[in-house]
UniProtKB/TrEMBL annotation:
The entry's keywords: Membrane, Transmembrane, Transmembrane helix
YtkA-like domain mapped to chain residues: 41-114
Superkingdom of origin: Bacteria
Protein name: FixH family protein
Length: 133
């Protein structure tokens, strides 16, 4: 009996870890809006997205600090070697930009690289975004 306890305990731990990982990767994680903020050079960028998911997503950006002429969004999933063609974000009011229908083909951890161009120079920030099914 004593030799079975460690095997049972290890089995339970493995099953619990697998359930938690599946829950986080495939829809059990945060399903609410994602709001992240970062600074690069003279720019402070806030990214907002409603529950990032597999398929088309809209990312909104508020940029403060200096005027920005253009914003480009490039999603990358380094763990899987995926990179999506950069998407230009459209102006959505002073200091606000929106990249619509950004296709993310699979669930997991993505990096959303935001490139900025403006009179104060260029800048780039990377936001980690968890994408659910």
């Amino acid at each position: 009996m004593k030799t079975k306890r460690p095997v049972v305990l290890i089995s339970v731990v493995v099953v619990v870890a697998a359930v938690i990982a599946g829950w986080l990767l495939f829809g059990g994680g945060s399903s609410g809006p994602t709001v992240l903020k970062s600074t690069t050079g003279p720019y402070t960028v806030q990214l907002s997205a409603d529950a990032p998911r597999v398929g088309g997503n809209t990312f909104a950006f508020a940029v403060t600090g200096h005027a920005v002429d253009g914003v480009t969004v490039e999603p990358v999933m380094p763990q899987m070697g995926h990179a999506i063609t950069p998407v230009p974000a459209a102006a959505d009011g002073p200091g606000h930009f929106r990249a619509a229908d950004v296709g993310l083909p699979m669930a997991g951890q993505w990096e959303i690289t935001v490139s900025l161009r403006g009179p104060a120079g260029a800048g780039q920030v990377v936001f980690p975004v968890l994408v659910n099914q």
